[in-house]
Amino acid sequence: MVREYLGAEVLEVGAGIGTITKGLREPGVRWVALEPDDKMFHVLESEFRNFGSEVEVFGETLTEYAGTDKFDSILYFDVLEHIEFDAQEVELACSKLNPNGYLIILVPAHQSLFSPFDKAIGHFRRYGRRSLGSLRPNNMNQVLSRYLDSGGYFLSWANSKFLEQSAPTRSQVYFWDSFVIPVSRIVDSLLGFRFGKSLLVVWQARPNVTRP
User: Fold this and answer.
1) Hey, how many other C-beta atoms are within 10 angstroms of the C-beta on 107?
2) Average pLDDT of span 137-158
3) Once rounded to an integer, what is the mean pLDDT over residues 146-153?
4) CB atoms within 10 A of CB 204
5) Start-to-end CA span in the chain (Å)
6) Residue 73 near residue 101 (C-beta atoms within 8 A)
7) By CB atoms within 10 Å of each CB, which of 49, 58, 191, 196 scores lowest?
8) CA 26 from chain center: how many Å?
């Protein structure tokens, strides 16, 4: 869904241990990965140690990143909900985009699903189309908005209302990955991506226009 919005210069904020980096990066693309957590940063660094200048890894937040370069694409995959001042973060990210560049954001959806699990892993909030859309700067156009993982919505709802677990069990993760996600991929499409436990948006920077 997002590959067509990835340019030649990509910045990934909150890259974790590199799962998204490995899944989306194409040869010849310069990829800058930021990860401020020490443990995850060391794993990330070891994963891409031999990639040379094509993959640059920094143990920093976007605020701490000293690079002055601009990017064609900036990714936040399950990261923005961990950032207390999300509006300021989005503004900063957009300032680092090239004209026509893309900001790609995936977040957990529906504040009503906020559970002990969200709190335990450092989530400040979950999002809906309206709350996430309110963060979009005036110089950005929305090109994609989709809810994902319709099957996972019901499992998250059950946890928030009944189980109240602060972390999933290994068997629950296996069930989710092996059974719920494949079903969701089919159902999401049938529902027109109008329902799900996650929300994916892509915003595009408007080109700079010089008027005579």
Assistant:
1) 23
2) 89
3) 92
4) 18
5) 38
6) yes
7) 49
8) 18
What 3-state class would DSSP assign to 79?
A: coil
Q: Which of the residue ranges 88-102, 132-146, 159-173 would you say has the lowest mean pLDDT?
A: 159-173
Domain 3-205: assigned CATH number: 3.40.50.150
**Rounded Cα distance, 77 and 198, in Å:** 10
177 in Cβ contact with 151 (< 8 Å): no
CA dihedral 83, 3, 45, 52 (to 10 degrees): -140
Domain ranges of the chain: 3-205
Tokens (6 digits) for 113: 């699903």
Question: Which residue type is seen at 122?
Answer: G
* Short-list 203, 102, 108, CA closest to 148: 108
Residues in CB range of 172: below 8 A, 6 or more apart? 155
Q: What is the 3-state secondary structure (H, E, C) of 51-68?
A: CHHHEEEECCCCCCCCCC
